[in-house]
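FORM 7B: Structural annotation worksheet

SECTION A. Query
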Amino acid sequence: MSNIPLYEELRPENLDEVLGNSRLKKILKSWVDSNKIKSFVMYGPPGSGKTTIISAFLNELDNKEYEIYKISGALEGAKTLKNIIANSESPLFKKQTILFVDEIHRLNKAEQDVLLLHVEKGDLILIGSTTENPSFSINPALLSRILTFEITPLNEEDIEELLNRIKRLFPKVVFSEGLKFHLKAYFGYDIRRIINMVEALIDIGIYEISLESFKEILSSFGYSKEDKYDAISAFIKSVRGSDPDAALFYLAYMLENGEDPLYIARRLMILASEDIGLADPMALNIAVSAFMATKEIGYPECLFPLSEATIYLSSAPKSNSILNAYMDAKKYINLDFEIPLKLKNAPTKWMKNKGYGKNYKYPHDFGGFVKDEYLPENLKNTQFYKPIDRGFESKIKQRLKRLWEGFKEY
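SECTION B. Predicted structure
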């Protein structure tokens, strides 16, 4: 019996052994053959094979040509980076430096800036892997100087080959017909999870492996792509329906089945504006705070801010007046209209002579408010925002009614 995890025993040694992602492998192979390596970042979900592909690629490079460093963005910072860069700049250092940063999104802005100049100068070839969208997690200046590759999920043929490789290690194992189809549907991206689940079954003496055997010991196997959208729909409708108990149930169901916590946090931010809005302006602050906390602390501790936001939003008064107001305003934007001259910008003398900005009443000269018409002439007195009589929005309604009495209906 070996203590080495099965996914490590199956890890490819070179690009030819890597499953799937044929287009990406073709690009990397061409770089190996031409000995022209470019900086890049590889983006994909956990377990999708980013580190495996990069390691196989690095294994094929000539050690005489390159000095290769491998670090973790989660564990090492600016000091390690500066030491690597100092070595690469040494006059005694003849080889081209390649730096592979696993979880590159964990490097902060200052640490990424350390890399920027040297990538730009060509002193350093940077390779990164990330589970987060590089557009959000990597500094724009650095991102503009490197290529971005996105991992694609395995197809049924790839999964069948994976199962065959497992079978070569465990000849007694029998996989049922059609299992590859179900594995693709549930775990097309997550190669590591497929391997870990098969290993778990083998460890307890199950060698006839089928869909049913997976379901018997691993309830999370049932969380498919369809389940994901059904669950988030049930979650949103429970929060909208002011039922914190149901909302917490669906939150736990999603998190315990491996759902991306940031996906849930984003939905809470949308819901805070769409379904609560100005009935409780704190709702959006709570949702944004939960998103930021989730991004910083990750799973499993993120369950606390997500649960707090879920309960708060479920308990808050509901209003969709913001959504309705925007949709009503949107109906009119294709009309032929002219922005009133008094509201137009007048940075030049010519514009001022044309009357731009003339007769504009500066509200602060009138104690902070003055009744005036701001809409185009053909939309005069049109009302898009219709505040409701719930929560804080009822106070907004009363204030607008007092301000615009005799001018607009609120």
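SECTION C. Observations
The mean pLDDT is 88. The first strand starts at residue 40 and ends at 43.

SECTION D. Sign-off
Analyst initials: ____
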